[in-house]
Amino acid sequence: MFSKLRSIIFKLDPETAHSLAIKSLKLNLISNIFDQNIDESFFKTKIFNKDLNNPIGMAAGFDKNAEVYNPLFKLGFGFVEVGTITPIQQYGNPKPRVFRLVEDQALINRLGFNNHGAEEVINRIKSNRKIGLLGINIGPNKDSDDRVKDYLIGLKTFYEVADYITINISSPNTENLRNFHEQGKLEELLKFINEEKKILKTTIPIVVKISPDIIENQINQISEILLENKIDGIIISNSSESTRNNLIDIQKHQKGGLSGKPIENKSNILINKFYKLLKGRIKIIGVGGVDSGKSAYAKFLAGADLIQLYTGMVFKGPNITNMIKKELSELFLRDGVKNFTEIIGNKS
Hints:
Layout: H1 2-9, H2 14-26, E1 45-47, E2 50-52, E3 56-58, H3 69-74, E4 79-85, E5 98-101, E6 106-109, H4 118-126, E7 133-138, H5 147-158, E8 164-168, H6 183-200, E9 206-210, H7 216-228, E10 233-236, E11 257-260, H8 264-278, E12 283-287, H9 293-302, E13 306-309, H10 311-316, H11 320-335
Parallel strand pairs: 3-4, 3-13, 4-7, 7-8, 8-9, 9-10, 10-12, 12-13
Antiparallel strand pairs: 1-2, 5-6, 6-11
Helix pairs in contact: 5-6, 6-7, 7-8, 8-9, 9-11
């Protein structure tokens, strides 16, 4: 059905189409589609001491304001990450700010953490009990004079309702946010996060979302800092400010973060480098170009414990988790794999 509607949807501005998708999910207009022939034992796993039916997650950015996480669980996502949420509501950058690169199966966005703010979102979550594993992605306001404080506000606001909290230091659309990748700034931020956790007497898992555009020596630095601060997970990666050379679409030079198929290989290489350094001590969530069983398989081989997607659903439709699981099942049967965890990090 989506293939028939796609040409109509793609005539709409991408942000308008996204708003319609959120409204459709809220009104339960998108039906849940499940294939009873899939062997679910291939996909059972655990993260942060909680059971998951499958390792396919919805990345932050789709459900920015925590409006449709339960409908997303019903579409088959094993976990959902909402946000990015800032302490105070903000509009984000001027429109147009999302661009659909159809020929490249990619998006470029420069949204800039548009969201309803922490207070409204926490009230919404408290009134809408989650039916699956929920991550909450937090960030600072654009005009904040103390960004570390903003992250602490996010932690204090959401630690009781989240299953994990993601510290987003990697959006290319908030000026100088990526400076937190620098050794001293990242050490300071995570020190304050851990101190706040002690004050709150919480063991909420902390995940750090990084940029795909980091340079080689930062991989070692970031790995060491995450291990020293006992961080629970790393998301590899956010959208890219580069990786434009081989794009076809005429909109390829739009300012913003590139997501989708063009960053798949870049993400996989980075995942594998972190996997070799972290050696299973920190969970890796792989993001970038996941839209099929083959692309998910490659992420696991590179070293991802879980995967996330967003752009893939834009191009493949709401039944994407079922499609991925079906294709993965065929690959697992071919290769004699009983559970996907057997292949994590098996890239030669």
